[in-house]
Amino acid sequence: MEFAAGWISGAAGLVVGHPMDTVKVRLQTQTRYKGIFDCVARIYAHEGITGFFKGMSFPVLSIAFSNSVVFGSYSNALDYLTQSQYAQCSKENSATAAAVFTAGCFSGLAQVLVLAPIDLVKVRLQNQMNGRWGVGADKYRGPVHCVAVILKEDGPRGLFRGMGALALRDVPCYGLYFLPYELICKALTESGKEPGTFAVLAAGGTAGVVTWACATPMDVVKARLQMSGAGGPVYRGVLHCISVSLRQEGVRVFFKGLLLNSLRAFPVNAITFLCYESLTRAGTSPP
After folding, report:
1. C-alpha angle with apex 70: 198 to 84, nearest 5 degrees?
2. What region, left, alpha or beta, does residue 193 occupy, with left being phi > 0 and alpha being psi -120 to 50 degrees?
3. Which of 8, 54, 152, 158 has the highest local Cβ count within 10 Å?
4. ∠ CA(54), CA(41), CA(31), 5° rounding?
């Protein structure tokens, strides 16, 4: 039930946040834009509303699956660490902060292998503009063609480009993701009761903002590595990408997209957690 709820909630969150994610990816991987509003205006002027939803058809199902891995792995890891059911952990506040953080880190690790190829295809499609690439020539006709081209050019390993940066981003950050959620839910919920709608929305949204504030620097590195060899600058690895980006653009480069990440994170994660909690309760409540 937790895996199914994670899948559906992930799809709902993705649809809400994808337009801002497209703007964020363009800002992180291209230098042609002066800022958020310039990027939004150019995308709308040249590509219309559909430009903000590029690359969404592929991850709307696949990232939903990745989200199901995150929530399913987290709840099962927390069950194992606390030797109790997830619902009881939430209700009786018996899960320690260390257990929540560890279970979150495990969920981040579990989904990296699933997410890496999906995120690579998404980033490449988001950088593709009508009739041309933002950083090179037009290359992909869609997600399936994108996968085929990557396999032809780089082999199976090419689908996992940027996975190291993705792991460095997601493993610790998913520990942070669930920790503020559990703490805020606990603070806003009376003892012995389930968290209400307001508590779940507030906790989920705050958890998303805190997580992305910490994840943005490595998110920039991850996106640049994923575009490496696809018309963008070529990097030899995480450390090389960090050093070159720092030397050419300064420390500020690692915070590109931070504002957008934060603005997107609150509604996306509030909706994701609300859907997840509602579905798990509906699926586990007695008839």
Report:
1. 75
2. beta
3. 54
4. 75
Half-sphere exposure of 1 (CA within 13 A, CB side): 14
The torsion angles phi and psi of 132, rounded to 5 degrees, stand at: -160, 160
Lowest mean pLDDT among 27-31, 88-92, 95-99, 146-150: 88-92
The pLDDT value recorded for residue 138 is: 60
Q: Is 108 left (phi over 0), alpha (psi -120 to 50) or beta?
A: alpha
Find, among 208, 198, 164, the residue nearest to 70 by Cα. 208
Share of the chain above pLDDT 90, in %: 33
CA 204 to chain centre: 14
